[in-house]
Amino acid sequence: MFASLTKPTVTHRPDYARWSLLARATVILGVFGHAFFVPIFWYLNLPVLALVQVASTLIFALAYWRISFGKLHFAFYSTLLFEIPASAFISTAYLGTAAGFWIYHVISITVINLVPILTIRIRHTLSAMLFAVFVALGVSGVNYQPIVVLSNEWLTFFFIMNMSYFSLIMVSFFVIYEGAVDKAETELADLNHELEEKVASQVKELERFGRLKRFLSPQVASVIVEGGNESQLESHRAEITVLFADLRGFTNFADQTIPETVMAALNAYHGLAGPLINKYEGTLERFAGDGFMVFFNDPVPCQDPGLRAARLAHDLHSGFDAAISSFSSQDCPLGLGIGIAQGPATLGPVGFEDRLDYAAIGSVTNLASRLCDTARDTQTLISKEVSNAVRGYVEMSKLGEFNFKGLSEEITVFDLTNTNGQAA
How does strand 283-288 pair with strand 411-419? Predict the structure, then answer.
């Protein structure tokens, strides 16, 4: 899935100072070299060529100024796009259509097509322009004479100087281009590496969020993931409120009904419970067929866990008939009983490596289960601790003292009949 994000291999980091210095040295040489020829051409009574050298001097001075701001490519474009036409003009002026003229233009066209920093379209366009000049001057006749007649010594001097400097320009900017490519590759590798790390981190967060969301509400799971600390899920003791809910008449219903209808009824039941559990930010330990267990105040503490459980029970009863009525019948009626208890418990992950659940263990869970078993359809039974926590927010009636299997003491049980006030 993430193969395209593999970090490319980069063998070295380019020496930016080295090729930047080379560019500066070349441009400085261009400034002084062209300035040097201005008085010479003026002395030889060649004002047009002197003005060309003045323009070249200014171009190179501007290029040096741009290099100071990191605009290395500006120097390349300015020298390439100005120097080649200017050199072609100068070579025509003092070479005419002699052998040096032909060699200069052939070399110019070849070099243009080797410049990697230019697009193919620009290379072809410049080459075509030079070739047009080359042909236009060539067809005028091999006996075409130079515009300026110079001695062989001056002719050789200008030709060698021009070709040498032009070659230096091309070599220096080839080096600059190579450095720029290395820099781009390094930056791309760094960006890909950062992207790879970010993607890996996000994938881990999504995996963590997916694991947590199995037994925590999305809000609670988000808090833990964003905090980056799952220590809250390690084994510990905490005071919690536990709610058990179980269908009444489900065993007979499952025996008398086709499997598809049984599963559809369970899905409707769970579809009612799931959003309500998330609404009150409960921690779902498990769905166990027709029953489920939810607890509050762990792993993230909350205000009024008892009241949250009471309101969850109220909403479950309120929405039960609408969710299940199409499956219930006179022969196989379905109902809902709920039990709520509050007390200390041991909490933490249980299971094995490929399957872990976040569980609550202790007498408080047993009591909530026994209360649920005792509750009739539409009834919610709560322990004394829960009644103390929700008093003033709910209507309830005391049912008396009960002895439950597995619990050594008598338990005072209350029947939760209604809730009022705002949810916690």
Answer: unpaired
